[in-house]
Write a structure and sequence with these properties.
The protein has 196 residues and is mainly α. It has 6 helices and no strands. The chain has one domain. The radius of gyration is 20 Å and the shape is elongated.
Length: 196
């Protein structure tokens, strides 16, 4: 039976937990965006003000309220495509994280190397996509802030919403760094053991 160092077991357990929580969370968020798009769910503005603001923001891409909204990058179809991609990516990452947890729980260390490599690749891809979308959203944020047509209250609402969406895509910024660091530890360890 193969063994795994205690350091890698703890890191693997942390990665499995982190990936499971994030995969499930972003899968749910993707489902919500897609259900709003297809019309199966419409948030109640009195109970979910922040969700209603996001919904209003989402709907404004269909009927832009000003010329400035034509200049932003993330439109309705782009948001739906991103959500569909995240739905698949999150479900895949969730599955790989659960598999990693099972490998650790059942001491199936023969599968450990492959399971952490899959987790690390998915975490790296997710981090890359998160960074790209965050950069695109930051340019949209600048477009709204620089608008001379929108009043200050409208600018505040939309910059707040874009800021929240940026923070969600950047996984609160801290998780982005943690995911990438853990993935690089796994990939580095994998490459080191391949040379032996």
């Amino acid at each position: 039976m193969k063994t795994v160092s205690p350091h890698l077991r703890y890191l693997g357990g942390f990665a499995a937990f982190l990936g499971t929580i994030q995969g499930l969370t972003w899968w749910i968020l993707s489902c919500l965006v897609l259900s709003i798009y297809v019309g199966t769910w419409e948030p109640n503005p009195t109970n979910y003000f922040s969700l209603f603001t996001l919904y209003h923001f989402f709907q404004s891409f269909t009927y832009p309220i000003t010329e400035d909204f034509y200049n932003i990058s993330i439109h309705e179809s782009t948001l739906v495509a991103i959500s569909a991609f995240y739905l698949i990516l999150s479900l895949t990452w969730l599955s790989s994280s659960i598999f990693l947890g099972i490998v650790l729980y059942r001491n199936m260390y023969g599968n450990f190397k492959m399971s952490v490599l899959i987790w690390a690749v998915l975490a790296t891809v997710t981090t890359g996509v998160d960074i790209i979308i965050t950069i695109v959203l930051s340019t949209d944020l600048r477009t709204i802030e620089d608008s001379v047509v929108l009043d200050d209250a409208t600018k505040f609402i939309f910059t707040t919403v874009i800021g929240v969406v940026m923070t969600i895509f950047a996984r609160g910024y801290v998780l982005l760094v943690i995911n990438f660091s853990v993935a690089m530890c796994f990939i580095s360890n994998f490459l080191t053991t391949m040379r032996m």
